[in-house]
Automatic annotation (TrEMBL):
Ranges of residues in domain Aldehyde dehydrogenase: 31-491
Name of this chain's protein: NAD-dependent succinate-semialdehyde dehydrogenase
NCBIfam families in the cross-refs: SSADH
Keyword Metal-binding: no
Pfam families (UniProt xref): Aldedh (PF00171)
Active-site residues, record numbering mapped to chain: 268
Key words of the record: Oxidoreductase
InterPro entries for this protein: Ald_DH/histidinol_DH, Ald_DH_C, Ald_DH_CS_GLU, Ald_DH_N, Aldehyde_DH_dom, Aldehyde_DH_Superfamily, Succ_semiAld_DH
Family per similarity comment: Belongs to the aldehyde dehydrogenase family.
Amino acid sequence: MTLKISQFQTLADRLADKTLLRQLNLIDGEWRSAASGELHPVVNPANAARLAHVPASGAQDATAAVEAAHRALPAWSALTAKERAAVLRRWFELILAHREDLGLILASEQGKPLAEAIGEVVYGAGFVEWFAEESKRVYGDVIPPHVRDRRLVVVKQAVGVAAMVTPWNFPSAMITRKAGPALAAGCTVVLKPAEDTPLSALALGELALRAGVPAGVFNIVTTAKPAPVGEVFTTHPAVRKLSFTGSTRVGKLLMSQCAGTVKKVSLELGGNAAFIVFDDADLDAALAGLMAVKFRNTGQTCVSANRIFVQAGVFDRFCSMLSEAVAGMKTGDPLTPGIQQGPLINQAALEKVQVLVGDALARGAKVETGGTVHQLGGLFFRPTVLSGITGDMRMCHEEIFGPVAPLQRFEHEAEVVAQANDTPYGLAGYFYSRDVGRAWRVAEALEVGMVGVNEGGISTELAPFGGVKESGIGREGSKYGIEEYVETKYICFGGIA
């Protein structure tokens, strides 16, 4: 059946705090329309209902946001770390206090199940809490001098205005993971959320104002056409840092645009994660780990298991276990309790999944379960397991970004490590084995920024998140994350005797 719009209340009706549903840009502490007056609809991917309209901003609005952030920078960066930490702590507490409403907004505009959406809000709040504390630990150094009458000191200072471009698949956590360390370090922020999911960003902006973030310190510009806004972010001389999460293609473009003013960049780009099940693995644990890392957010994550390698000795058994588990997954309206899979984000995402599955089947793959558009219609695709996958299939080289688990058979450890590394990407990798020696060998051999050994859920604010090769530059989260937003300054004091 097809979901009917009439089955859903309006988003505003469902919210306990209706003022969290903001539909204007946040610039210099004020809620503003786009200079053009144009609007951009926000659509629920589960039922095509229009949730809201936000400004379809352009270069003029982006410039206003950058200039507001630049004006606010001296006062914000001059605060003590403890003073900034107190504001961030209040923001963290407000996010947690409103997690139900924030989760509802997120699930409605993005399509992930409500429980998963609330989980993202809580996870994202953790970054604000972490960096509120970490701001007080941005230490410098005193270097032993080479001349007796000199003192050599190193201090860390805020980079300046930090521009951020965030994706639709984690519209809350990707903001806090960037804005948390930036604000903690003393930077001011200009943010462009994804066109499909701006409401989560605006709700976070509302709570930031309530927490006492000063005018101009945290600015949000929504748009339907990201290129003009992105050009301002990458070329305006007042912007000294760009942080981007998205495709490798767009990341390369933004990086090249930043070269003109030699901005500091952080890029979290595409992935092609391998998930390896060795024949000595705990198969129940491997199954649980794969279900979590493959089907979370309907497979729409950059660290999702994209290529699944299973050793020959356990291939048939694991394929059967996985197929049974996937066939039992519940797909539907993400606001319905118990739903495990929501819709894909838009028509282009659905068509891409269909094309990749069609290509695999044409080249000899076999459908174990799923494989087609869901009977709900719309943007729903059945959770799918494919076997008989070979390296010449497109889904081995392109991110699926959908609920499709493609299984490849392998024989030997060296063979599968070579296959796992045979990609220009290097974000995450996973494997299951109870052999301690193999655990160390394979973890060190995988060419990725993050490895899960007998674990599928590796993301946490406590650890550095990021990739190597064409999966990006820099790290987010952990003590390393705040280093992306500070500059190292050396001061030489002479004439001290």
